[in-house]
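Actin cortical patch SUR7/pH-response regulator pali
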Amino acid sequence: MQLGPGAVPTLCTFIAFILGMLCLFAGSQKGILDGSADILTLNTSRIGQTNSYGAQNSYASDPARELGIYDFYTIHVMAYCEGYFKTVDSGAAVRNVTGCSNRTVLFNFDPTEVLSGELKDGVNLSDLNWSNAIDDDFQVLSTTTKAMAMLYCIGTGATGLAVFAGAWLVLTGGRTQAITELFLSILGFIALGTSSAIATVMAMKFVDLINRHGKNIGVSATRGNKFLGMTWAAVGFLLIAILSSLLMVVGGGQAAAPPPADEPAKEAAE
């Protein structure tokens, strides 16, 4: 079967759907883009080295492990993962994820709760001069991150339905399917575009705030460029799908299938 122009928006929505699923489920369990496709990473490998308590461990190769916590925490859409840095043969430090939290749509990362639950006995965050400003930063984004996750679910779901509508359109060439695919693609574009914008603000502005407030206690953050690349690529493919669908709808949909070869001869005989 030869695919016509109607396959273009369907192919684009399919790619956007796969990218949306990867963004949504990254880090939801160990092995699913847990150490690479994160919105941001909280680096606690040097926590406590700048205060009186940390001075006791200033020569420790891994201060975080000495305190009972992990070197880093990668924050994703519906979960977070944690682990230690390890040095490879080239001398570079890479992430070694040891586990991830349970997946939930209404996920919110609370650094005080997580770190307090992991610190060894006799040590608490006040001993490390933990900055309440970091807690305030995460608290401000609590509602926003939950809304972002909901929008990712809506956007990915609408895009998946658009793929099915587009597949039916490729097979039948129906105008109704073209309009349905266009509507679902627009819904997915709006939802994924908004959630991508929220993730970008988190990865850019929020990382700057953490670095500013955590500088004096050895805590820092980095943004997830791979995640941002995937989420905006999904939005871009949806935009292409929408423009292609618009051309089809305005142009009257796919061309009708040509009549059988013997039909003109029949008509002439009649």
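thats it. The CA atoms of residues 15 and 52 lie 52 Å apart. The longest helix spans residues 175-214. bye
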